[in-house]
Amino acid sequence: HARQTSPKSYAFFSTEMTLRASERLRLETALRHAVDRGEFVLFYQPKVEADTGRVEGAEALIRWMHPEWGIVPPDRFIPALEEGDLIHPVGEWVLREACAACVRIHAHGHADMRIAVNISPKQFLERDVVTLVRDTLDETGLPPAFLELEITEALLVQDVERVAGILAQLKKLGVTLAVDDFGTGYSSLRYLAEFPLDTLKIDRAFIVDVEHDRKSAAITTMVQSMAHTMGLHVVAEGVENDAQIDFLRNLGCVTVQGYYYSRPLPEDQFLRWLDAHPAPTQPSPNTCDH
Ligand code: C2E
Ligand code: MG
Ligand code: MG
Ligand code: MG
């Protein structure tokens, strides 16, 4: 009786399949036009040292300004870009635009701001990302030390030797490397010893209940302590309230990113936010020598 399917449920299934396929096609077509028409923009979200209040820089986050649909968030279209080849032209545009924006931010009087850019695993595996980064830095005039590349654990479980080689070459250029959404992937902790990383970004999933949940608090404390011992920098993602910021300030040597300080902003608003953000009143009480 397992083969019995009611006509109704079959019809529903098939309609849904058709709908999904046609929707996907519509999205792909719209994305191809978006690339040609330049409908993407970058928003910038500040990264702030929890204990001193010093702004360290910003993460560049892509948005799609669709003429009818309005602002489309990246989770809605990055996977579709990654399915095809469109992630390459878009990823190249993001890198160039973010580096150029960082140069403009420096010229605006914030000469120590760094910029972080998300790089999709496909950009490492299917293109020469080292040449891309080197050429982009040359073209925009951004000194490499101001650029951080955010990678995901998904990249670190690929061909380990090849990926380690690429990351080592990127480090040689003088850029820094961060692991995004740390703690949510399926890779082992061993990669921390195998890859030349600089920063761990603790995923928002641990920060969201860090003040109520002893396990999230323990994981966050453990990651900060381990990272500090290894000479890695720590960023806490998705910090929204006073209790979370208090917890992280007590840990020491943590950079925070989240709505607590600011949502991601268009470039002009980000510059105004920087202008208005008070300079730190005290030097760092801890020696964060990394
Ligand atoms: P991500 O790199 O982990 O970026 C952090 C995300 O968390 C951003 O979402 C940001 O707006 C959001 N966020 C920051 N603070 C808070 C907070 O306090 N509360 C909450 N609820 N959310 C917060 P966004 O901009 O929608 O980006 C989502 C993801 O899309 C990014 O996650 C990243 O994986 C991807 N992405 C964004 N821009 C790019 C890009 O240029 N290239 C690639 N390959 N991926 C990108
Ligand atoms: Mg990121
Ligand atoms: Mg993240
Ligand atoms: Mg995240």
Automatic annotation (TrEMBL):
Residues 24-278 form the EAL domain. Keywords: Signal. Coiled coil: none annotated. This is Diguanylate cyclase (GGDEF)-like protein/PAS domain S-box-containing protein. The lineage of its organism: Bacteria, Pseudomonadati, Thermodesulfobacteriota, Desulfovibrionia, Desulfovibrionales. The chain holds residues 765 to 1054 of 1054 of the full protein.
